[in-house]
Design goal:
The complex is a heterodimer of chains A (481) and B (522).
Chain A: H1 2-13, E1 24-25, H2 29-32, E2 66-67, E3 76-77, H3 79-94, H4 114-126, E4 133-135, H5 139-150, E5 160-164, H6 169-181, H7 186-189, E6 190-193, H8 205-215, E7 219-225, H9 237-246, E8 250-254, E9 273-276, E10 291-294, H10 326-329, H11 352-368, H12 371-391, H13 395-398, E11 401-403, E12 416-420, H14 425-434, E13 437-438, E14 440-442, E15 446-449, H15 458-479
Parallel strand pairs in A: 2-13, 5-6, 5-7, 7-8, 8-9
Antiparallel strand pairs in A: 1-3, 4-10, 9-10, 11-12, 12-15, 14-15
Chain B: H1 3-11, H2 25-33, E1 44-45, H3 49-52, E2 93-94, E3 103-104, H4 106-121, H5 139-154, E4 162-164, H6 168-179, E5 188-192, H7 197-209, H8 214-217, E6 218-221, H9 231-241, E7 245-251, H10 263-272, E8 277-281, H11 293-296, E9 300-303, E10 318-321, E11 342-345, E12 348-351, H12 362-365, H13 388-401, H14 406-425, E13 429-430, E14 442-443, E15 445-447, E16 460-464, H15 469-479, E17 482-483, E18 485-487, E19 491-494, H16 503-521
Parallel strand pairs in B: 2-17, 5-6, 5-7, 7-8, 8-9
Antiparallel strand pairs in B: 1-3, 4-10, 9-10, 11-12, 13-14, 15-16, 16-19, 18-19
Helix pairs in contact in B: 1-14, 2-16, 4-13, 5-13, 6-7, 9-10, 14-16, 15-16
Chain lengths: 481, 522
């Protein structure tokens, strides 16, 4: 491992993005294992709303933990507490005026504009025009809102929804309940894609396209993950989208694991709609407000509210006042007429606190130079991790796990999923945690390791592999094998 | 008359005869002295005139407002109002808690705790509750913790009837997706003529989603000339349409006039007439008036938390689902039709809904199974994992409610609003602008909130009776430190909320308003 450590150090030193790590609060080893908040010292309630300080660190345990779990919950940008402090100060000072009254030199927009500002920051991350993006609600809510707008089944025509057989359960439940709303059932109208060849259910584009072909005439919509949560596979979004369109199918992408992870060009790829959450690679915080994309061709409003039958000028969607044209929103008229674009799918005024948290994090993406720059480092980082797993571990240990993520770097993001031998997961996770290595588990046998380019290092990868070897050793011993 | 006696009169549904001295500052001050809730004011940050005028952040927030104005014994002038409130650093007269509640001081502590938890624990914060944290729960339990706090606020039978999630309009859609299941016979939604626009759009789009026509399936209940929704009119509308109605959806408090509807009576009447579902939008009622949703037999309700609940702009919302809908068996109506539509699904029947993983029972949520087994009750309507920081802010706001009761808040609110109305009554005459001897005095404004104390919450809506008055009056109010809501073209809404407003606030508002009218009419 000495060689690996040296290599890692060299890679870290020459890493152009190394400085972005400094933008994040990395839990220390002591903190990650803590069961208490830091005890507030005297005068702990700060007079200054900007004064957020992490507890002073125990020097002995002051090293950062090895946090490779950004695919599950991203770390906190350092500027997030400051931005939130500014928001709280605005609410305190201005009360309701915060909706409309701008403050000089404030990084924060007035509250009525927070959604537009957030959309502006997200748009380049997903490769869309600002008008094609809305920061709102949560991932599953957005899937429901999109399907309510764009899934109009005809049992005698197109009624099926295609999704993968190992979809994240929320997607599965969303699709199933949408079907049931229309009086359909999974038996009649749900088609799942399973790989005929891969035991890990890595789906080739061919697998997907054959299922599409088979059901094309009766399929209304297809919902797929940009990156599959379990295997970490990155699907070929443009190719699959184009193919589905050839067959007249509406294409929705769940980008939970893709947004902020891999470069996306949703507009150019002609994606119909997409939704995502913001607490993974976007580092917005647990459960942070999500987002959706609607291609401009699907969100046109071709009539004015004063025209005859204005409702025929836009696609019906589950509506709320925040999707109405801003200029008339406060006029309290009994007429919904959406603004064109993704913003027309909004329902309610969003949580300013939540959106502030997200926008703070998105500033860091801009600072780092955007996702394509991060992707360059990510490719190297994950390849480095993979090379260690493949060639820097003993044969004994290598026999105890398998990487189920595609080895083609273009078919994956930051994450590697490791399938362990049965019965080892619990011990491995415990041993890793004891060594302050934080990864994610998927019972019964998978651990997911995701070195995030914004804040992980090549040395993190080496530390992981060392800890992983020790953990496997311990688990092997525990099994008596 | 003392505080308690006045409250008793108001509780009996009568308007008290205020003492002739009631329009003196001393009287207001005396009421504050008797106010058992005056200590709660210190727990909020009330904007000051200085802070309201800020053009840039400067690292300060207003100091804690004292429960009662500082009286230094000597008056600086002969006007009692100059003793207090003319200092730009004194709290403003913040009467807009019906639109955006003032910030509880606890919010900073809770939000900081959440930020520290995230920074320190990373992903482990989902399952670890830090011992000394004001949050009192790990992230995965935070929503439930807030749900518990709502039980006494909305009158739920238990926490399983309450869920904290999403936003009001989304919750309305989720409730309708589950409870508005139109058939050929029963397809109508009864609503009031001018609901808050979001409700209108939600209802309209739900109907369209079912392929029905809003023109035939939306039935508006009309108010009288004063925009008053008479209970009799509502009951009559229910009677007329009961057989074809799938859902009655009304606001607990009407946002424009501030009218409090008789939720108990209307719900009971609708259910007795066979209306399968009665839903209430409690945006202006939650945290404002006493609610007994379970006892009243309400099927579902939704609310936001940034008004009287003080959780911050757009903060995470709430919903109520009656226990009768938690179980597996769907009640049948007299035609043998299922009153709702259930699904046979995996582990058994439960009410149809738009589902997501977070509605699954906690014990199986991470099993990644494809069979949806919802948590019994309202929490089974969750879709995605909620925002922990939003929940932190809400839990802080709810912790203030935990220090009192809705009954105590309502007592004070009844008196605050009655007192406001009494004082405003003195402002009614509009001075004749011409000196030509025209003695007729026309009122400058009219209160369009019902006069019956039992038919309103904290809010009073003032309809200005002359064009152009709104702008001039608004400007004067703003200059004099009043924060209120203007509804163009001619309505001002003020809400002296019991948690942090004082009787002196009301006195000062009436004083400023009187002068505003005088100045604007000159």
């Amino acid at each position: 491992m000495v060689d690996a450590r040296q290599r890692a150090r060299a890679l870290d030193q020459s890493d152009a993005l190394a400085s972005t790590r400094g933008e994040f609060n990395i839990p220390t080893r002591a903190q990650i294992a803590s069961s208490r908040l830091s005890d507030p010292g005297p005068g702990a309630i700060p007079a200054s709303p900007h004064n957020f300080k992490l507890p002073s660190r125990d020097l002995a345990a002051s090293g950062g933990c090895v946090y490779l779990c950004g695919n599950s919950l991203g770390l906190q940008p350092k500027r997030t507490p400051a931005r939130i402090g500014q928001y709280l100060a605005t609410w305190a000072a201005h009360g309701v005026q915060g909706h409309f009254k701008p403050l000089d030199d404030s990084p924060l927009p007035t509250w009525v504009d927070v959604d537009a500002r957030a959309a502006e920051l997200v748009a380049p991350i997903v490769g869309a025009a600002e008008s094609e993006v809305a920061v709102m609600q949560t991932l599953t809510a957005n899937l429901h809102l999109l399907m309510s707008a764009f899934y109009h089944p005809d049992i005698n025509g197109r009624h099926k929804i295609i999704l993968e057989s190992r979809a994240f359960p929320s997607d599965h439940f969303a699709v199933e309940t949408q079907l049931r709303h229309h009086g359909l059932t999974p038996e009649t109208s749900m088609v799942t894609i399973q790989s005929p060849f891969s035991e890990d259910n890595v789906l080739s584009s061919y697998d997907i396209m054959s299922v599409i072909s088979t059901h094309a005439a009766s399929t209304a919509l297809i919902l797929l993950p940009g990156i599959q949560y379990y295997t970490g596979q990155l699907l070929d979004i443009p190719v699959i989208t184009a193919f589905a369109h050839k067959h007249g199918i509406f294409v929705v992408w769940d980008l939970a694991h893709a947004v902020g992870n891999v470069p996306l060009s949703l507009h150019d790829w002609d994606v119909d709609a997409a939704a995502w959450c913001s607490y993974k690679y976007l580092n917005g915080g647990p459960g942070c407000i999500g987002g959706l994309f609607v291609h401009e061709r699907n969100s046109l409003v071709t009539k004015a509210v004063t025209d005859d039958k204005p409702e025929e000028g836009y696609s019906n969607r589950l509506a709320g006042w925040w999707g109405n044209d801003k200029r008339t929103r406060f006029a309290m008229a009994n007429k919904f007429h959406p603004v064109s674009g993704a913003a027309g799918f909004q329902l309610s005024n969003p949580s300013v606190l939540d959106i502030t948290s997200l926008s703070a994090s998105l500033e860091v993406f801009a600072l780092a130079g955007g996702v394509p720059t991060l992707r360059k480092k990510s490719l190297t980082l994950t390849a480095f991790l993979e090379s260690l797993l493949v060639s820097a571990m003993s044969a004994d240990h290598r026999a105890l796990f398998r990487i189920i993520t595609p080895s083609d770097p273009e078919q994956r993001g930051a994450q590697l999923s490791l399938l362990l031998s049965p019965g080892m997961l619990e011990t491995v996770m415990k041993e890793l945690e004891a060594r302050s290595v934080i990864v994610d588990e998927r019972k019964p046998d998978v651990i997911r390791v995701a070195p995030a380019p914004l804040y992980n290092t090549f040395s993190d990868c080496v530390e992981f592999v060392e800890a992983f070897s020790a953990a496997l050793e311990a688990a092997k011993g525990a099994k008596g094998g | 008359m003392d505080f308690q006696t006045l409250v008793k009169i108001l509780r009996a549904g009568r308007v008290p005869d205020f003492h002739p001295d009631a329009d003196s500052f001393a009287y207001a001050d005396a009421l504050d002295a008797q106010d058992g809730l005056s200590h709660l004011r210190e727990q909020f940050i009330i904007p000051t005139r200085t802070s309201l005028k800020k053009r840039a952040l400067d690292g300060t927030v207003p100091d804690a407002p004292s429960p009662r104005p500082r009286t230094n014994g000597s008056t600086k002038s002969s006007h009692p109002d100059k003793k207090y409130g003319d200092d730009d650093n004194d709290p403003s007269i913040y009467l807009i808690g019906n639109s955006l509640g003032a910030q509880p001081r606890a919010v900073r502590a809770h939000v900081d705790a959440q930020l520290e938890t995230w920074a320190s624990l990373g992903v482990n914060g989902h399952f670890t509750a830090l011992e000394n944290s004001p949050l009192g729960a790990s992230w995965q339990d935070l929503a439930e913790e807030c749900g518990r706090k709502f039980v006494p606020i909305v009158g739920a039978a238990s926490a399983s009837e309450v869920v904290v999630m999403n936003t009001l309009t989304l919750n309305l859609h989720l409730m309708m997706a589950s409870f508005y299941r139109p058939t050929e016979k029963r397809h109508k939604i009864l609503l009031e003529w001018r609901p808050f626009p979001s409700d209108w759009y939600a209802i309209q789009s739900q109907i369209a989603w079912h392929g029905l026509d809003p023109a035939t399936s939306m039935v508006e209940i009309q108010p009288d000339a004063d925009q008053y929704l008479a209970t009799a009119a509502i009951l009559a509308a229910i009677d007329e349409h009961a057989d074809s109605t799938a859902l009655l959806l009304l606001p607990g408090i009407q946002y424009y006039t501030g009218q409090l509807l008789d939720m108990a009576r209307i719900t009971a009447h609708a259910k007795a007439r066979g209306v399968p579902v009665v839903g209430w939008d409690l945006a202006h009622a939650a945290g404002n008036v006493e609610l007994r949703l379970h006892e009243w037999g309400v099927d579902f309700a939704v609310w936001c938390t940034y008004k009287y609940l003080n959780a911050g702009p757009g903060a995470i919302a709430g919903a109520f689902v009656h226990e009768r809908h938690h179980g597996r068996d769907e009640p049948q109506d007299e035609d043998g039709e299922a009153k709702g539509s259930s699904s046979v699904w995996g582990a058994g029947q439960f009410r149809h809904r738009l589902a997501g993983w977070y509605g699954a029972d906690k014990s199986v949520r991470f099993d990644m199974a494809k069979t949806f087994v919802p948590t019994p009750g309202a929490p089974g309507y969750q879709l995605s994992n909620p925002s922990a920081i939003d929940l932190a802010a809400l839990s802080a706001a709810l912790s203030v409610f935990g220090q009192t009761s809705m009954a105590a808040l309502r007592d004070k609110a009844l008196l605050l609003t009655a007192y406001a109305e009494h004082l405003l009554g003195k402002s009614l005459p509009l001075p004749s602008s011409s000196g030509n001897g025209d003695a007729a005095v026309r009122p400058a404004f009219r209160i369009i909130t019902p006069a019956n104390p039992a038919e309103r919450g904290s809010q009073l809506s003032l309809l200005l009776l002359r064009p152009g008055l709104l702008d001039r009056v608004s400007r004067y109010l703003v200059e004099n430190g009043v924060v209120f809501d203007a509804r163009k073209p001619d309505v001002i809404r003020v809400a002296p909320v019991p948690m942090y407003c004082s009787f002196v606030d009301v006195w000062r508002f009436a004083d400023v308003f009187r002068r505003a009218i005088a100045v604007s009419s000159a």
